[in-house]
Amino acid sequence: MFTGTREVVPPTARSSRRRRSGIAVSTLALVLAALPLTGCATMNGGHTMRAWLEDQSAVDAVDVYCVSYMETGCGLTADVALVPDTNAADAAAVIDGALEKAMEDRHVTADYFSIELEWQYRSASLTHYGVIVYPRTTSDDELTEPVRARRIELIGIAIDLAQSGAESVTIGSNSLDVKRGKVDAVPTDLLATTSFSDNAATVSLNDRFTMNGWEVQIESTADNQPPLDAIDQVTAIPPAPGTERG
User: Fold this and answer.
1) Helix, strand, coil proportions of the chain in percent (round to 5)?
2) Which of 18, 179, 213, 242 has its CA 20 to 30 A from that of 194?
3) Can you name the residues that pair with 59 across neighbouring β-strands?
4) 0.90 exceeded by the pTM?
5) Which sign, positive or negative, has the C-alpha torsion 11, 15, 16, 20?
């Protein structure tokens, strides 16, 4: 019969050990949960895309991260901050070059690559929505000459709006959304009255501004002229007390 002594562990010590064990397990779970995302960004071309973007003179800062895709896949997203007052040609070149790099570099093996730009132009905040390509495919819809031309044209119009005092402009592949703030008169450079090339004839346009206390929003297409006289007439009417202006 075994007659050796057995260590008696006080209840408080056992509880402490269990707590330490629980903390260790929780920490391990967090590490394991983070590994797929980190591995995705490293193994699927995140480092390659970050290095290329950081080497561009128009880029001020960049964050490249992994996004889960179709449960078992991986996508790469690059959020890029451009140097203030970057012009349209240089901004478009960052997008076009990054898309080409993602399509052509064999190290980029993610299911897709997306890039979004933001930068300050004078006092306006400019944002270009994410543009997506799919590496390892022959699909180059975002890199055709008409699409490249439309991209630089829309960025150029956004910069013109920034120079005329807009607060912010959001640029999409087929859209422009400008917020102007308070104005004393209907702007003469409304998007719907802006001259576009054939490449931008179907762009969705959104103008927003505040005039005489009214919140005005004009949604249109490039070939749809808003009734400027009607806007003047409506905004000239003082809203009734307690009425929401919009």
Assistant:
1) 40, 30, 35
2) 213
3) 82
4) no
5) positive
Instruction: State how far the Cα of 18 lies from the Cα of 9, in Å rounded to an integer.
Output: 12
CA distances for 173 relative to 52, 135, 177, 199, angstroms: 23, 19, 12, 11
**Position 91: which residue type?**
A
Question: Which structure tokens are listed for 110?
Answer: 């993610």
Q: How far apart are CA 181 and CA 208, in angstroms?
A: 7
230 Cβ partners below 8 Å, 6+ apart?
none
Instruction: Give, in degrees to the nearest 5, the angle at Cα 34 between 28 and 40.
Output: 140
pLDDT in tens, 57-115: 999 999 999 988 887 789 999 999 999 999 999 999 999 999 999 999 999 999 999 99
